[in-house]
Description:
This protein is an alpha/beta fold. It is 34% helix and 25% strand. The chain has helices at 2-34, 51-62, 79-92, 105-108, 111-115, 130-137, 141-152, 161-164, 217-226; strands at 40-44, 69-72, 98-100, 122-125, 155-159, 169-175, 193-197, 205-209, 231-235, 239-243, 248-253, 257-261, 266-269, 275-278, 281-285, 290-292. A hairpin with a 4-residue loop joins strand 10 (239-243) and strand 11 (248-253). The model is unreliable at 1-33 (pLDDT under 50).
Amino acid sequence: xxxxxxxxxxxxxxxxxxxxxxxxxxxxxxxxxxxxxxxxxxxxxxxxxxxxxxxxxxxxxxxxxxxxxxxxxxxxxxxxxxxxxxxxxxxxxxxxxxxxxxxxxxxxxxxxxxxxxxxxxxxxxxxxxxxxxxxxxxxxxxxxxxxxxxxxxxxxxxxxxxxxxxxxxxxxxxxxxxxxxxxxxxxxxxxxxxxxxxxxxxxxxxxxxxxxxxxxxxxxxxxxxxxxxxxxxxxxxxxxxxxxxxxxxxxxxxxxxxxxxxxxxxxxxxxxxxxxxxxxxxxxxxxxxxxxxxxxx
Length: 297
């Protein structure tokens, strides 16, 4: 009797392990089958947005799901006002179905709230403070829903802070040292740029915005010196990149996109926390040009 029970327990354990392995394989197979996303990323460096630029976003959104556009203004210090303004901007572009949601963390953790985004063709994040976005939705059902929409073909866009959150590693805009106003990011040094997790739509690059206009070269170079496996992509104002499913991107707008590639650079350190880089590659792209993130060219 005891032996039988032992055998039963033994075979039950084997069955549980087998089922667990099968489930893991199914999950892995599902993730592998998902493959590359079918959607686009529409990343604007801030500043003015031309009507032609925004019409491209609207066109991409109209081809996915039900074509509805969802505005997420949580980065703004006045999210309700910003949300209404962006909805009006899209309506002026003849978008019939556009709404905004100012999600709190509690709302973003509600699966029912996340389902309100289902089927949408476009998600657009406003400017402001990027940390407000991640504080509200990072690792929540709303975040997962946006990932799913991107996977299914939706366009995920944003400007300024809404650009910064696109990468896995996010520049917060804060410094470890406390500079006086007007003296921000004056150095290229280790450990000064404060980073956090972004929403992770781009895994192999870090995004910076308002780039040449606000002289943000120092901070992006500091970041890629610490993370040379990543490309640094600096998008200037009135300019955007449209990231295609194959991880190439097209530059649109009026100014430049600057790329720093330190993957083969020799990185050295000097007095204090000073950083040296030899052999870093820099690209300055104009509207109409295309760049491959995987091929780095």
